[in-house]
Amino acid sequence: MQTLSQEIRQLAREKNAVILAHYYTEGAVQDVADFVGDSLALAQKAAQTDADVIVMCGVHFMGETCKILCPDKLVLIPDATATCSLAESCPAEEFAAFVKAHPGHKVLSYVNTSAATKAVTDVVVTSGNARRIVESFPADQPLIFGPDRNLGAYLNSVTGRQMLLWDGCCHVHQRFSLAALQELKAAHPEAKVLVHPECPAALVQLADEVGSTAALLKYALASDSEEFLVVTESGILHEMQQKAPGKRFIPVPSTEGPGCNTCNYMRQITLPKLRDCLLQGAPAIEVDAAVAAKALLPIQRMLELSK
Ligand code: 13P
Ligand code: SF4
User: Would the N or C end of the chain have less CB density within 10 A of its end CB?
Assistant: First the structure.
């Protein structure tokens, strides 16, 4: 009798499919994947794969990015309704109007956007490369950054820029509790604080390390510290604990209490849905050809600038 995970691995072999998973998916999904990474690494992996099928265990915009990079491949997502509150906080027509109202600006969009929003963007960024890409523009070049106001404000603070910011946010990162972090810091004075830049500035200011999920993981593995307070979606603790079993990773709760620091969209991706999507070859991600052609350029620029 095969386990669900064994069945998924067998189906992936039969279909020549590569399973990519984000660190925020549940542990069992990460364990069955061929590759687990942050948004940047997932896009890089998709661009390089020679598999016939890509299964994106993440949210919809991640599947769209894969499809735009690999239009001839079948790109599957176990649940096509797994969206992202941050991407949804930036409707493409409204963002296009904002861009039009500010001529002379170059447009940087976080990867957490729809393909249609990327289509009105000059360069896509992730939290893993955003600072480097912002700094690649001449200092006197006016910039627009969307949609995450917290990441945008953080980038303005570390680069000294005054990018115009779209007023969007992620519902998970916006609601981490500052009071809970302060209490945990007092109770664990030796612990290092790891904060994702999608969090509000008051939390970022208490960080020992600010970065993408991959950057936070790398810092924790390289650090001499034994304890870490983790201020990002708690799915990342799975990989942290696996890679550093001797260290203690403490998830910081949200203002709504413990257990609310998970992304409900990412958690829609489950093993049964992953098995079914491999079996059925659906749901598949499709992107309108004209939109995809426009969105490809800023994604390619990002990948070029990340080498
Ligand atoms: P990274 O994995 O790039 O840090 O992104 C976090 C995120 O919110 C993805 O949706
Ligand atoms: Fe989107 Fe936030 Fe979920 Fe990341 S954690 S996928 S930004 S809703």
Answer: N
